[in-house]
Design brief:
Elements lengths: L4 H19 L3 E7 L7 E5 L14 H11 L4 E7 L5 E9 L8 E8 L1 H14 L4 H12 L4 H16 L8 H13 L8 H9 L3 H11 L1
Antiparallel strand pairs: 1-2, 1-5, 3-4, 4-5
Helix pairs in contact: 5-6, 5-7, 6-8, 7-8
């Protein structure tokens, strides 16, 4: 028997409101309809998390998650970083038959930026001095890796050393990161400027400006 999704829309919005209240201001609940291939937003709670507005389409992270959900029993978990550097963990649910008009897509997105910062603090506090062992293990693993993978790992290591989520970094801290990477020759690697720019949530032109400042 076909389900009348229009009759359930009000229930979905009530669920969204309840989840928003239960999980707090760091949780966004968004409802999209699938009446066309654009999947337009028709209801949201705490939309300051991603800045979604009425009738916005899904972003490409959400569309990728939707494709996975279609082959994984209608739901999937995914994560991504927003343009302003916030780290989000999200769950996507297909409510109804996605092959037919009228299905609703619910996406619950939680801002875990502060949790990641707290995790970093706990890791530093709980660290045990096994540097020599780690170095030996890392050296053996890196032997077979190509220069691009080594570059990406070096960028991640230096960003992690700062001990802050990207969205909390000041311009001065980002310039310092670029300076450290430049000293290690990272920008000699093809594609490194674009990679670092994406990692720091800035444009590649901003990276060039930072390099001009430190040279």
């Amino acid at each position: 028997m076909a389900i009348n999704m229009n009759g359930l829309t009000e229930n979905f919005t009530l669920i969204a409101d309840g989840l928003g209240k239960l999980l707090g201001q760091n949780c966004e609940v968004a409802l999209f309809n699938s009446k066309d291939s654009n999947y337009k937003l028709f209801y949201s709670v705490n939309n300051q998390i991603t800045g979604k507005n009425y009738e916005n389409n899904m972003n490409h992270y959400e569309l990728e998650a939707l494709n996975k959900a279609k082959v994984h029993n209608g739901c999937t978990i995914f994560s991504y970083t927003t343009k302003d550097g916030r780290s989000l963990k999200a769950a996507l649910f297909i409510l109804g038959d996605s092959s037919k008009e009228g299905a609703v897509i619910m996406i619950i997105s939680y801002d875990i930026t502060d949790f990641l910062l707290a995790r970093k603090a706990f890791q530093v506090f709980c660290a045990i001095d096994d540097i020599a062992e780690d170095k030996s293990d890392n050296d053996s693993k890196k032997d077979g890796e190509n220069i691009t993978i080594l570059m990406e790992r070096l960028v991640s290591d230096i960003v992690d050393e700062v001990g802050k989520p990207i969205s909390y970094l000041s311009k001065e801290e980002k310039v310092k990161i670029v300076s450290l990477l430049n000293n290690k020759g990272v920008f000699l690697v093809r594609g490194s400027v674009e990679y670092v720019a994406e990692k720091l949530c800035v444009s590649r032109y901003t990276i060039y400006n930072y390099l001009e400042e430190i040279r």
